[in-house]
Amino acid sequence: MGEFDLIARIRERCPSRHDVLLGIGDDAALLQVPPGQALCVSMDTLIAGVHFPLQTAAPDVGWKALAVNLSDLAAMGAKPLWATLALSMPEPDETWLDGFLDGFLALAESEGVALVGGDTTRGPMSITVTIHGVVLPHQALRRDAARVGDVIAVSGTLGDAATGLRGLQQDSAECPWPELRHRLDRPTPRLALGRYLAGRAHAAIDVSDGLLADLGHVLSASRVGASLRLDALPTSDALRQALPDLVQRHALQCQGGDDYELLFTLTDAAWLSLQAEAHRQGWQVTAIGRVEATAGLRLTLAGHPVDPPARTGWDHFGAAT
Ligand code: ADP
Ligand code: MG
């Protein structure tokens, strides 16, 4: 099985679509951008052993490779349309590729994304996806648009994926918390929420590196500060059971990455409307703080100021402690 057999295997599984004038098979793809919309493009790489544990099943790798990219478009308020895939693998392994495509294409199909091209090479396992989507230019959710007085809100629950990873690091054979492991392997990009927020919220970012880090990006880009209520952070039942210790839990919720939830800021009026819509749609959204004029981030617990939790999460240049 050579490079071209692998590409043929991928191509076989990619149906044609009206907005893909030319897909896999030529020197480049030709895509029809809807008039009036801005093209919104983002890229993320997953390296085996860095962005996913080595023992991760191929379908989970495929899902996650696309999910982390879709999450970036969700955070822009964009609608994803097309993906390209750069695949580097040590051996042409068709079984692995088939599994990878199962996960990748399942998510692609459910979100209406077409795989339109890519590159296939031999080398250490790494996967790079570029996602292309569209958004009305004035509605895009930028990091630099938070305003003083905005509610700070977040989707879903926080800390699950980082705790799932922690469980795996403690016991590489089996994570003691399968639900949390699932959150690590199969993040859910919050695309419908992101598109609702486009033109309604002020700023947004997806929580990939950890709540405090990602909120920090919004605050510095917007030149504002914020207060955050630790006791308001949305917590899953699985996390509550896995980490009964409150300090430990808050640390993972504040600093653990990989949740791919949306963090956004909006006016009180927009927050009220969102709550009604979230109720209709079944979205979980939680207000966790407020944007303030004074630079920096102030944390409170039960109304009292507290220091940021000690680092116990995971980062690429540090180590889990
Ligand atoms: P070129 O030499 O012109 O770069 P390639 O042989 O790399 O062409 O690719 C042939 C076609 O297959 C191109 O349309 C390319 O986009 C597509 N392709 C290659 N690898 C992948 C992949 N991993 N996923 C999707 N499409 C791919
Ligand atoms: Mg090529």
Summarize the structure.
This protein has helices spanning about 5-10, 60-75, 95-110, 160-170, 180-185, 190-195, 210-220, 235-240, 245-255, 270-280; strands spanning about 20, 30, 40-45, 80-90, 115-120, 125-135, 150-155, 205, 225-230, 260-265, 285-290, 295-300, 305.
Q: How would you sum up this structure, described in words?
A:
There is one protein chain. The chain starts with a helix and ends in a 15-residue tail after the last strand. 36% of the residues lie in helices and 26% in strands. The strands form 3 sheets. The chain has a 7-stranded mixed β-sheet, sandwiched between helices. The relative contact order is 0.15. It has 10 helices and 13 strands. The model is unreliable at 312-321 (pLDDT under 50). The radius of gyration is 20 Å and the shape is globular. Helix 2 packs parallel to helix 3, helix 2 packs parallel to helix 6 and helix 4 (160-170) crosses helix 5 (178-185). The chain is of the alpha+beta class. It has helices spanning 3-12, 58-76, 94-110, 160-170, 178-185, 191-197, 211-222, 237-242, 246-255, 268-281, and strands spanning 20-22, 30-31, 38-47, 79-89, 114-122, 126-135, 151-155, 203-207, 225-229, 261-266, 285-292, 296-301, 304-306. It binds adenosine-5'-diphosphate and magnesium ion. Residues 7, 10, 24-27, 85, 87, 115, 117-120 line the site of adenosine-5'-diphosphate.
